[in-house]
Amino acid sequence: MPKVGIIYNDIKPVACQVTQEVKAKLESLGHSVKTATGVGGILGYSSPDRPICHTPVESLVPDGFDEDMAFAIVLGGDGTVLSAFRQVAPAGIPLLTVNTGHMGFLTEAYLNQLPYVIEQVVAGNCMVEERAMIAVKLLHKEALIWEALCLNEAVLHREPLTSMCHFEVSVGHHAPVDIAADGIIISTPTGSTAYSLSAGGPVITPGVPVLQLIPICPHSLASRGLVFPNSEPVMIASANPDPLVIVVDGNAGCYVVPEDRVCLEKSPYPAKFIRLRPPEFFKVLREKLGWGLPHIAKPTSVELP
Q1: Which of 223, 254, 259, 268 could form a disulfide with 146 if both were Cys (CB 3.0 to 4.6 A apart)?
Q2: Whole-angstrom distance, CA of residue 13 vs CA of residue 53
Q3: For the whole prediction, is pTM greater than 0.70?
Q4: Is residue 115 located within the same domain as residue 188?
């Protein structure tokens, strides 16, 4: 009996209702269905007090979600999609992302398309698009004390108030550089349309094997965004006496003290998106962010009476 999963946003009534409807539909087609909420992928924020509770990324996989699962359906917005990939990426499960939120930049289908979409996926009329994720690790004297998977971006900054920080950044085997800024963003191509875009970073089409480093409000005209191969690990150390915080995909974070180092590298676990057709990234940019829309035509000149 084929096994299918459903991950849903349990604080949205519509997602809860649709979950039950989809579960019943799939079971009527002879599928075994496992459900889980997206809460399991939200790591929360650690306390500035030590020790930090270290949760291995592999332990976030929900019960019953394993390599035998054909695919899983995500019902929610972009936040639920990000959470769901942290839950299932270690198990290699492809996700069909269905938008019940607002922007839906990462989602493949809408609720009104769901019956048709499920029919096509069950019939195998689909493809899988892989996107790179980042493995974020916090090291304290070479010991791993915190980790998370990241699909969009990881941000290192000071709190509670944003102010100038000094970071020592090493990319691969290259010599370290010092960056003075309010914070640093390390982004995937998927995340290039998220916080990185708002901070002035370029849009990178999915599939390009790179990461990008974007300083937030840098205190130097020479500090600009950097795009580099995702085969190069990044090591960031703080040159400030005060603790910093690292935030992953906007909903998980950990405090970073001066003795700590943050290591970011391409994860061995990609995010697998189920697509009904070859993805058209520029179309998504146009529909969601208004990129490339034609300019408004100027009125033709007319002779005044």
Answers
A1: 254
A2: 32
A3: yes
A4: no
CA angle 266, 245, 200 (to 5 degrees): 65
Do 192 and 244 belong to one domain? yes
What secondary structure does DSSP assign to 50-114, as a single string? SSP----GGGGSPTT-STTEEEEEEEE-HHHHHHHHHHHGGGT--EEEEE-SS--TT-SEEGGGH
In a domain, 301, yes or no: no
Of 68, 78, 178, 182, the catalytic one is 78
Specify whether 182 is catalytic.
no
Statement to judge: residues 122 and 7 lie in one domain: yes
The string of pLDDT tens digits covering residues 2-34 is 999 999 999 889 999 999 999 999 999 899 999
| Same domain as 47, residue 122 | yes
**3-class state of residue 242 by DSSP:** coil
Closest CA to 240 of 155, 295, 186, 182: 182
Query: Which residue, among 208, 205, 213, has the nearest Cα to 187 in the 3D structure?
Result: 213
**pLDDT tens readout for residues 192-227:** 999 999 999 999 999 999 999 999 999 888 888 999
Residue range of the domain that includes 147? 134-266
Contact in structure between 165 and 182 (CB atoms under 8 Å): yes
Backbone torsions φ then ψ of 219, nearest 5 degrees: -95, 35
